[in-house]
Amino acid sequence: MKNVSINFLILNFNICLHHINASTYLNLNDLANSDRPFFDDISPRNVSAVIDEIAILRCRVKNKGNRTVSWMRKRDLHILTTNIYTYTGDQRFSVIHPPSSEDWDLKIDYAQPRDSGVYECQVNTEPKINLAVFLEITDNEFQNIKTDRRYYDSKAARAKILGSTEIHVKRDSTIALACSVNTHASSVLWYHGSSIVDFDSLRGGISLETEKTDIGTTSRLMLTRASLKDSGNYTCVPNGAIPASVRVHVLTGEQPAAMQTSSANGIRTNNTAMIIIFISVKMLLYISIFKER
C-alpha cells in the first residue's frame, strides 16, 4: 500500500513538473516572439497624392532592434531605400526617420503618374515581413515649370545653365548637361519636356551628380548613347529656386543648320577669292605681253 502511495505521489510530481516546464517554455516563447519586429499598422494602406506634390507612405516598425527596414517598388522589385540610405538614382525618393523614432516613412518629391502602384515596407526578419501600401497620383495636369513663379521671390535663388543653352550632339554620343544654383538647394530635379527624367527607366545610361560648394549647388546630368528621342528641352529645377532650361538637338551625322550655313559661306568666300586671284593673274599676264610688244 505504501508503494502504491509513493508511486502515486511520484506520478503527480512528474505531471506537475511537466506542466511547469511546458508553461515556462510557452512563456519564454511568448517573450521571444514579443521581441520580434512587427508593424504598428495604424497608417492607411491606400494613399493619394497630387502630381508635382509630395507623397508620403508611412511605415512604423516596433521592436526593430538591429534589423533593416527597406522600401521596395513592387512593379519592378526595385529596392528604393534601406534604413536611411537611398538606393536609386531618382533623388525624389528619401526616407523620413526622426532620430530614436519607430517611423520609416517613404517620401516622394514631385510625385508623378508613373509613381502610382504598390510599395512594400520590409523588415529582414526570418521569415521576412512586409507591409504593402498602394499609391495613386490623382491629378495629371502639368503646370509650366518655366513660367510658374508663385513660389519664387524675385530676389530668390535661381539656376543657370553652364555653357550654351542650345547644344547639338551626335547620335550614340553622351549628352552632358550642367546647371549651377546660387544657393544650397536641398534637391535638384531635371525635366525632359514636361516629364521628370526617370533614372530607373528601361533606357538606362542616365546618371546625376550633385555637388555642394561654399557658394551653392551644381547639378550635372549625363545621358549616354544619345538617340533622337533624347532631343528636346531639358529644365534644371532646384528646390525653392527659379529653373533654367537648355535645348538639346541629337543629330544623325549631319551638322546643324547654323554650322552648315557657316560652311557654305566659307566655301562661297573661298571660291570668290580664287576667281579674283585668277582674273588678277590673267590681267598681269596680258599687261606683261602688251609691254613686250
Topology:
Blueprint: H1 2-34, E1 38-39, E2 46-49, E3 55-57, E4 61-62, E5 69-73, E6 78-82, E7 85-86, E8 93-96, E9 105-108, E10 117-123, E11 129-137, E12 159-161, E13 166-170, E14 175-181, E15 188-192, E16 195-196, E17 206-212, E18 217-223, E19 232-238, E20 244-251, H2 257-292
Parallel strand pairs: 2-11, 13-20
Antiparallel strand pairs: 1-4, 3-9, 5-6, 5-10, 6-7, 8-9, 10-11, 12-14, 14-18, 15-16, 15-19, 17-18, 19-20
Task: Tag the structure with descriptive keywords.
293 residues, alpha+beta, six-stranded mixed sheet, five-stranded mixed sheet, 20 strands, elongated
Strand proportion, as a percent range, falls in: 25-35%
What sequence of helices (H) and strands (E) makes up the elements? HEEEEEEEEEEEEEEEEEEEEH
Low-confidence stretches: 22-32, 140-154, 257-270
Question: What would the principal axes of the Cα set say about the shape?
Answer: elongated
- First-to-last CA distance: 168 Å
Secondary structure tally: strands: 20
Radius of gyration: 35 Å
How many H/I helices?
2
Overall residue-averaged pLDDT value: 76
- Can you list the strand order of the major beta sheet? 2-11-10-5-6-7
Proportion in helices: 10-25%
Structural class based on helices, strands and sheet pairing: alpha+beta
